[in-house]
Recover the amino acids of this structure.
């Protein structure tokens, strides 16, 4: 089978290669899946550099999430050959076949295709875990979503709006403001630069934001501490901006807000019943047509470098999907 293999870690993708490998052998408890689409996530890029918190042994097949058809499964797995599924593992998605634990898969919601299903799990699972499970989002609240042009950010904008929140979306690129306005129904789109608190205060009528969703970090996090309402939560999703910010503990004390780290995948692993509830909630919203992943582009797996370079160059709005 064709598989995108990370052989060595490098800052320029020079250690990544499309290779021919034997299909994986399914172990008991696993499901063998023929992959029809797989979506690129920022951690996929970081793992080629050794910059992600999870560091798989080399070589490894890249790709966090995918959608496809079941080829083989245990009789008691609740899956059968021909079932359409989506899900993921930490690696293995950018290939023609993968074998993953049955618990890592869900049935595809009715009415969506393989590309949309491949873009559903990680982004919307992260958004739901952060905003609903941890953030306890309520209709009418204000939510500030940073990095909103990325897959994880755009999913948070869409989910928050569907749940009745007011959303301010931010981007770090002037060229993406119009694209983000077209791709989302955020109440406002602003640049996350300088002292953006004043814009947030004006938009919210001085209330500031009940939840701040931050996959960027660095200077954006620093200014976000000024944007959280008393009793609110600053949700730390990641550090796409590169710098891991520091905070003096007197700031959340005086301002009365919480800083909460969100690791959606680990949350689901530690609390599998809650993970199942989150997956089912996202799938139901997608099946009802209330969630629809924004696909920036669909490329064949042979054009993997184009996909990775677009993400590295921050030229993507939403998700990039690769088809083996």
């Amino acid at each position: 089978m064709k598989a995108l293999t990370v052989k060595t870690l490098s800052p320029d993708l020079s250690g990544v290669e499309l290779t021919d490998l034997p299909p994986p052998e399914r172990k008991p408890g696993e499901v063998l899946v023929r992959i029809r689409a797989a979506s690129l996530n920022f951690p996929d890029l970081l793992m080629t550099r050794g910059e992600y918190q999870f560091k798989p042994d080399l070589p490894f097949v890249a790709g966090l999430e995918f959608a496809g058809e079941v080829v083989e499964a245990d009789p008691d797995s609740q899956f059968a050959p021909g079932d359409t599924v989506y899900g993921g593992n930490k690696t293995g998605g950018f290939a023609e076949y993968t074998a993953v634990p049955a618990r890592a898969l869900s049935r595809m919601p009715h009415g969506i295709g393989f590309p949309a299903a491949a873009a559903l799990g990680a982004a919307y699972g992260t958004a739901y875990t952060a905003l609903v499970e941890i953030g306890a989002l309520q209709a009418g609240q204000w939510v500030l979503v940073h990095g909103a042009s990325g897959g994880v950010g755009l999913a948070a904008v869409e989910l928050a709006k569907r749940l009745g929140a007011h959303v301010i979306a931010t981007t770090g690129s002037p060229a993406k403001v119009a694209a983000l306005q077209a791709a989302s129904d955020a109440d406002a789109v602003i640049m996350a630069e300088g002292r953006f608190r004043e814009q947030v205060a004006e938009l919210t009528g001085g209330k500031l934001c009940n939840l701040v969703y931050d996959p960027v970090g660095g200077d954006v996090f620093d200014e976000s501490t000024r944007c959280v309402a008393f009793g609110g939560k600053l949700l730390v999703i990641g550090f796409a901006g590169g710098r891991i910010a520091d905070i003096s503990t007197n700031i959340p004390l005086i301002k009365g807000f919480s800083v909460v780290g969100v690791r959606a995948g680990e949350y689901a692993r530690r609390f599998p019943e809650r993970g199942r509830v989150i997956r089912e909630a996202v799938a139901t919203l997608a099946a009802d047509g209330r969630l629809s992943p924004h696909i920036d582009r669909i490329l064949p797996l042979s054009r993997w470098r184009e996909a990775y370079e677009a993400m590295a160059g921050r030229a993507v709005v939403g998700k990039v999907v690769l088809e083996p």
